[in-house]
Amino acid sequence: QVQLVESGGGLVQAGESLRLSCAVSGRTFSSRAMGWFRREPGKDRTFVAAIDGSGDDRRYADSVKGRFTVSRDNGKSEVYLQMNDLKPEDSAVYYCGAGYVHNGLGAYEFWGPGTQVTVSL
């Protein structure tokens, strides 16, 4: 079983930055794509960013391109989401997801409990 734990959320003002981290247990980390998703109250979870196992392929939602950067450290089994120029509409619970082993940027098998990000004006 793979466990994920997000950290780094908090309350910031518009224009500020946050860096989310996701620590992943198990020995298959480098074989899994990792993704970041978010859920606003009353809405479905939506895609934010993803990175493949090697870190060479990265994808972003249009709403965060140019502001957010996804990265990973396979030696530490961690994935990160650097969020710059935050906007109130970025407020949500952010979730880290682990893809299936050797499945590329596809479906996600495991999820963390989430971390709250709140951006005020």
List keywords for this structure.
seven-stranded mixed β-sheet; mainly beta; 121 residues
Question: How does this model look, in words?
Answer:
The structure is a single chain. With 121 residues, the chain is mostly beta strands. Helices cover 0% and strands 50% of the residues. It has strands at residues 4-7, 10-13, 18-24, 34-39, 46-51, 58-60, 68-73, 78-83, 92-99, 108-111, 115-120. Strands 2, 4, 5, 6, 9, 10 and 11 form a 7-stranded mixed β-sheet that branches. The protein is globular.
Q: What do the pLDDT scores average to?
A: 96
Largest sheet features? 7 strands, mixed
- Low-pLDDT residue intervals, each spanning 5 or more residues: none
| Helical proportion, percent range | under 10%
Number of helical segments with 4 or more residues? 0
Distance between the termini: 40 Å
- The outline comes out as globular
**Element order, helices and strands?**
EEEEEEEEEEE
Rg on CA atoms, Å? 13 Å
Query: How many individual β-strands?
Result: 11
Structural class: mainly beta
Strand content: over 45%
Architecture blueprint of SSEs:
Elements: E1 4-7, E2 10-13, E3 18-24, E4 34-39, E5 46-51, E6 58-60, E7 68-73, E8 78-83, E9 92-99, E10 108-111, E11 115-120
Give a quick rundown of the structure.
This protein is mainly beta and 121 residues long.
